[in-house]
Amino acid sequence: MVENQVHEKVDASGSGLLLAPDVWTMTLLMVNLCFIGNPHDRFNKWVLVDAGMVDSMERILEASAERFGSASTPQAIILTHGHFDHVGAVKELAVHWDVPVYAHAFELPYLTGQSDYPPPDPSVGGGLMARISSIYPRKAIDLGNRVKPLPSDGTIPFMTDWRWIHTPGHTPGHVSLFRDQDGVLIAGDAFTTVKQESAWAVLTQEKEVHGPPAYFTTDWKEAWRSVEKLRALHPKIVITGHGQPMYGKNLSEQLDALAKDFDELAIPDHGRYVH
Question: Is residue 236 part of a domain?
């Protein structure tokens, strides 16, 4: 996949990028989600990865109807993790479509009402998005028996040729999704392509590789290991939870630098979870 094969698509439900015939990503407010499936495939099978923020359901339904047809439903919803900006519409969508939800086993306590996430740290990151993070929701949601653990062998239900990679640090059960045949990586919040702590950076969406959102990252050693793990894959295209997709030389050089100097580029000098 090269840059001239990436096509921008804008529709009534938000802006999106077609990064491969079966990989389409859209941004809702400040977070990205992915539709995996080729609408020209006669079986019309597809999967939703992450579910945006609260009140995103109608826009996701509009986008899925435009891409796959109004009568089409996904085979499943896959979650990179359970933070509020990735699961906002998941419960409504799972019920509406009557489909299962899959996440890492370590993430299930936050998705079945058993455990709330640790509190955010507004002191890290140095931007408005970080400073107001104390108001972000962190309570568990309860998906009941709709949510299931991802298979332990690394396969992803209904996503042939993809595999999940455990990339903890931002959350205990954070996963990234990778397809070896074309190097497409869905990284969730293991790292980002925007300085998510800064409101200005979020508004301007300048492409730049950064660490995971600092205010919600609770294990920095694991976060570093996760970035090293993803860098070792040498991804060709990366879709992160926040920021625009990246590919080519800028991606490889910046991801190399982040993995090498994560302690300087990503880990805060101080904070609740730094030590």
Answer: yes
233-236: long-range contacts, CB 8 A cutoff, minimum separation 24: 233/165, 233/178, 233/183, 233/185, 234/183, 235/178, 235/183, 235/184, 235/185, 236/1, 236/182, 236/183, 236/184
What is the CA angle 83-85-88, rounded to 5?
95
Any domain includes 272: no
Tens-place pLDDT, residues 217-237:
999 999 999 999 999 999 999
Mean pLDDT for the stretch of residues 70-95: 97
Q: List C-alpha distances in Å: 115 to 89, 119, 182.
A: 19, 12, 37
Domain holding 122, by residue range, is 3-265
- How many distinct structural domains can be found in the chain? 1
Distance CA 228, CA 225 (A): 5
pLDDT tens per residue, range 105-151: 999 999 999 999 999 999 987 778 778 888 898 999 999 999 999 99
Question: In whole angstroms, how far apart are CA 8 and each of 16, 64, 132, 244?
Answer: 6, 16, 32, 12
Count of C-beta atoms within a 10 Å radius of residue 225: 16
**Is residue 274, in this structure, part of any structural domain at all?**
no
* Two tokens, residue 89: 């519409």
Instruction: Determine, yes or no, domain membership for 275.
Output: no
* CATH number of the structural domain spanning residue 224: 3.60.15.10
